[in-house]
Structures are given as C-alpha cells and as structure tokens.
Write a structure and sequence with these properties.
By secondary structure, this protein is an alpha+beta fold. It is built from 16 helices and 16 strands. Strands 1-5-6-11-10-9-7-8 form an 8-stranded mixed sheet, sandwiched between helices. The protein is elongated and about 90 Å long. It binds histidyl-adenosine monophosphate. The site of histidyl-adenosine monophosphate (HAM) has 28 residues, from strand 6, strand 10, strand 11 and helix 12.
Length: 430
Amino acid sequence: MLSSSPAPLEDDPGMTGDRVQAPKGTSDLLPPFGGRMEALESAFAVMARLYGYQRIITPTFEHTEVFLRLGEATDVVRKEMYSFSDKGDRAITLRPEGTAPVVRAFVEHGVAKREPLPWKVFYGGPFFRYENPQKGRTREFRQVGVEALGDPHPDLDAEVIDLAMSFLRSVGSGELDLLVNSMGDSVCRPGFVRIFSEFLSDHADDLCAECRERISTNPLRALDCKACREVTEHAPRFVDHLCDECRAHFGAVREGLAALGWDARVEPRLVRGLDYYTRTTFEVQSPALDAAQNALGGGGRYDYLVGEFGGEPEPAMGFALGCDRTLAAGAGIDGERQIEASVVDVAESGAGRALLAELRRAGIAADAAGRGRSFRSQMRACERRGVPIAVIVGPDEEARGAAAIKDLRTGTQIEVPRAELVQQVKGLLS
Ligand code: HAM
C-alpha cells in the first residue's frame, strides 16, 4: 500500500510539546557538517565532469506514476514512497531515487533524437524514502549519481564503476569492498526466475512470510532477506545461468575493472532494492560501517527502463552514492574556510568597518571580533575562535592613519600604515 497521507502526528515527536523539532527521519547539518556535505557534492561534480558527465537538475517531486514505472513489486515503490495528494488532488511523490526522473526527462525531451549518445548526466541533492529511521537510514538523505544513456558496451559499465570507486578513494572513504553481479536480460532472466521460484517453493516452509509472498511477486529479492539466508545460501546462482551474451558481457566488465586496477568480488547474492537492473549490478560497501548501513552506493545497467517510460529502448547504466553514509564512513573532506583575520575596532568612527571591507575585497576571510564590545572582550573573542591575526584599530592608530596587526600565534604586534595593511596581513598568512 502506498502511503497517501502525511505522517500521523503521533509519529512525529517534533509536533508535540512546546518546541518544534525537525521531522522524524530528517536532520540538520549544522556547521561544519553542512560545509562538508557541500564540499563532497562539489568534489563529485568535478570528478563527474572529468569523465564527461554534465549536470542535470530534475524536480524533487514527480507524479507518483513516474516511480510506479519502476515496478510496483519493487520494495522502494511498495513500502518506502513519500507520497501524498496535492491541493489539486494529484498523486505526488517526493523522489526516492534519481534514475527514474532522469529517464522520464530523457524521454519527455526527446533527447535521443536531439543529442549525441551516450547522454551522460550527473546529479546531486535530497532524496526521500518513508523508512523506519535508524542509523544510516533516514527519510531525507542526499545522493550524488550519474546516468549514461545510449551505450550498451561493457566498457561503459567498467567506466561507471571506476568513477564511483575513484571518487570514493579521492575523498578518503577508507577501505572499500566492490561487489558485482549480473541480473541477466530478457533472454535468460525468465528461465532463471522460474528455476529460483521453484527452489523457493520447495523450501517454502522454511521461508519468512514476506519471502513466501515474494515467490509469486519478486522471488529474487529473497536473496536479500537476512531471515531466509540459510535457505538461500544453497539456492541456484544467476551467474551460473546467464545466456551466452550476458556471460560475455559480465566477463568483459570484470576484465575492464581488473584492467583499471579494481578488485571486484562477484557476489551472486547481490540483488539491489530496485528492480530495473539488467546485466551488471554493483555495490560499494564500507567495512567501517555497521552491516545494516554499509552500502555507500551502487547501481548498474537498466537496459529496459527507457522503454518502460515509452521511449525507443536505449541501454543505460548509472549509480548513486549516499552522501550521508559516505561522510560517516570517514570521507576526509572539509568544506569550511576559517576566518583569517578579525578586526578589533575600538575607534567607534567607522574605521573598523572600512578595514573589514578592505580585507575582504583583497580575498582575506575576515570578520568583526565583537562590534561595540570592550577591547578585552574583542581580543578574547579572537582567541576563542582561533583566529590567527587580529587587526586592531583605536583612536590613536586612527589619528596616525595606521592599524595594529597582532599575530595571535606568536603574540607579536606591529603597527603599519593603512596603505600597507592588506599586504602585511597577506604576508603573515602566507
Ligand atoms: P540505492 O541503492 O537505492 O540506488 O541508493 C544508493 C545509495 O543511497 C545507498 O547505497 C545508500 O548509501 C543511499 N541511501 C538509500 N536510501 C537511504 C536512506 N533511507 N538513508 C540514507 N541513505 C540512503 C539508487 O538509488 C539507484 N537510483 C542507483 C542507480 C543509479 N542505479 C542506476 N543508476
């Protein structure tokens, strides 16, 4: 059942009591975390452009229909959509993922006829899933990702995986496990699904209730069920039942990854939460995180999805990374700029205001130490903030057309003519 109404009030501690809090499953990224998130997303944009991708921005909400095209048996669609009716009674869903909107836009704008293929786009921003919030799993989270539409070659698969891995490496995400699998295509999948469902039916008594239901709706998802692990441990493996073309494609992808220096482990149990995958699927896991939230990201090929959206079929491949988890895994990224100089103004004539503007226009990150407060209190504020340089201006300095510069790291203080101030501060900071 899709949830068609907003969260009930008792579900949301933020709406009870006197104080208003952020909704359940969301979080505030206070400094410096907001800056770290921004820096992560900017670094992704730089890396994606290096591989030939261009920015796409799609709406954060879509007609619910867009996501229903992913298949109503898909877990994300069936259980996790943040859906509601708007004031015009339209069924709207906050985007749970980025692939469906990109495919919708590709078809809607007739991109295949207007642009050279593959069409390579990247995106980033907030996504929404109506989950039971827990560590690493929230109702609003951020992703960055790429989609390349119109290229069936296995080298594209290897390139996309290489981009994901290279990015995670470049931001210092620590040790990474790369898992790959193949989900076959319309030639071999039906046969394997039949074999797999028969296996599940034979062991139905040992399956959980949900997986018993899945036998007829979405049997392969049972591979992802922890409760049924003992049963599926001995299940037939898709990699052993691929048709010749899928086997050759999978072999070429693995060869491509090895040539690029990535050690990919074939994981026949890897079935991801979205059902659009054909042939290659992959996931990048971080051993530094708990097992329940260790997937930093993943993706794969989805050669039939453009057709599901009514376009001329085009093969495609992409991935998305969860930014929140990537930062939690220890991505060594720092987005904030520290204040380099504080202006301690005891002149009360506007001299400090002018100095501050001059420093900033010269590209020095500067701020007021504490407007209207005493000299001592302003100096204390500089120390508390760990500012390296204090620029001090009082009535005496002002009368002399000068300013004092105190290097708070060494305690040394000098007086300089106003005209030399910027140059002197820059010299101390270099
Ligand atoms: P996904 O595996 O559903 O794939 O999501 C990618 C990543 O987003 C996950 O590995 C995880 O890091 C993060 N993520 C997902 N749900 C949550 C959540 N509730 N809280 C925090 N982080 C979360 C996709 O979304 C596909 N669209 C990837 C793709 C692109 N496949 C082909 N192209």
